[in-house]
Amino acid sequence: MNEYDVVVVGGGPAGLNAALVLARARRRVAVVDAGRPRNAPATHLHGFLSRDGMPPQELLTAGRAEVTGYGGRFIDDTVTGIERGFRVHLATGGALSARRVIVATGLRDDLPAIPGLAERWGRDVLHCPYCHGYEVRDRPLGVLAGTADAVQHALLVRQWSADMVFFAHTHDLTPNERERLTARGIRIVEGVVSRLVIDGDRLAGVELDRGSVVAPAAIFVRPRFVPSNGLLTGLGCQVDDNGWVVIDQMGRTSVPGIWAAGNAADPRAQVITAAGAGSAAAIAMHADLVDEDVQRAVADARPFSEALERQVTEVVLTGRRHGL
């Protein structure tokens, strides 16, 4: 069976929670997932009530089991395109037919091209202080410049440690930025970062182009967030000035029948907020499907009602002609 009420593209927290709500609403649901979660390098997730400290893969495994328990189907594949109508095409061949589609394909973290950085991503090279700050609290920390909001990021990370350095890298600090960093006791390290020094399986230092090495226990870096929204833009969904698909509070895009949830539309969504967005999208989508079901039922019933009315009218007229 390849016909569904809803096809969910992406099996992360947003997609899984959407599928769970829809399956419990007795909708025919299929989740297509490529198996490449954004937080795969992380050992634990945090900030999720009752799931704090759980390995990310355990959350996904539990979510799959719950969705499957309500009749949802999982397809381990990649969606290569979506036709209006909707036909969801798979990389391995074939297609799924759906009345509605939720795209929850997440985003990609575009990291600075510094040797060693990507290899330590999610371990001792971090980006979210709310996800990892407590685990490295009170240790020597560094923040690597690379995006326009790097200084603000450093001031945020300062909450977790008083022993901090800011690697200016290629960023030209303004006098105001220097003043703010210095006022908070954050030491500024000038010079371009050339590479990370790795010793065994840990970060041993940050090497500068001048040859000096600074050794924080962990580095925070704000990557450039790149939405994985090619399926959405391919359908003609409206995007904002920064290239993110425009959605309403319930995840509706500008294309009727297409919803988006999680990091595919919101770069700041954490695991718990992505899951909530998936739930909100599913509830709105189910209401939309109910409206369509009612319209179809009325349309199907109307010919019968009209035929019955004609029969009753004919009986009445016949009776009158015979004086009944």
UniProtKB/TrEMBL annotation:
Domain FAD/NAD(P)-binding, residue spans: 4-275
Gene Ontology molecular-function annotations: thioredoxin-disulfide reductase (NADPH) activity
InterPro entries in alphabetical order: FAD/NAD-bd_sf, FAD/NAD-binding_dom, Ferredoxin-NADP_redctase_2
Origin superkingdom: Bacteria
Keyword set includes Flavoprotein: yes
Pfam families: Pyr_redox_2
Protein name (record): Thioredoxin reductase
